[in-house]
Design goal:
122 residues; mainly beta; SH3 type barrels
C-alpha cells in the first residue's frame, strides 16, 4: 500500500523524454548552473561509466579527461537541473560498470564503437 502511494507521487516527477543510452556511450549532458542570481547551461561531455538506481533515484556517472586529470560527475537522471542528455557515440562494453577506465590514460580509454547504433554527425 505504502509503495503504491510513493510510486504514484514519484511518477509525476519522472521525465518522459529521456533518450536511450547505455554504459560505454559518449554523451553530452547539459545541466543548469546557478551562479548568484544568474543561471546558465553548461555542457559536460564524457563516457558513461555507471548507471544505478531506479525510478526517481536513478543516477548515471560520466567521466572525461581534462588536462590529463580524470573528472567524474554523477547526475540524477530525473533532476530538473539536467536539461538535456544527448548521446553522441555508442561504445561497446561487456561490463555493467566501467570503473577500470580510471586506471587508463590516452588511447586505451577509448572503447570500440558499436556499429548500427546512434552516432551524431554534425
Amino acid at each position: 500500500m505504502k509503495t503504491q502511494i510513493l510510486d504514484a507521487i514519484e511518477k509525476k516527477s519522472l521525465k518522459k523524454d529521456i533518450p536511450h543510452f547505455e554504459i560505454g556511450d559518449i554523451v553530452d549532458v547539459k545541466c543548469r548552473i546557478k551562479e548568484g542570481d544568474k543561471e546558465r547551461i553548461q555542457t559536460f561531455s564524457g563516457t558513461v561509466i555507471a548507471r544505478r538506481g531506479r525510478g526517481i533515484n536513478e543516477t548515471f556517472t560520466v567521466r572525461r579527461i581534462v588536462d590529463e586529470e580524470g573528472v567524474e560527475r554523477i547526475f540524477p537522471l530525473h533532476s530538473p537541473n539536467v536539461v538535456d542528455i544527448r548521446p553522441v557515440r555508442s561504445g561497446k562494453s561487456r561490463r555493467a560498470k566501467l570503473y577500470y577506465l580510471r586506471e587508463r590514460t590516452g588511447k586505451s580509454v577509448r572503447l570500440a564503437h558499436r556499429y548500427g547504433e546512434h552516432t551524431v554527425t554534425e
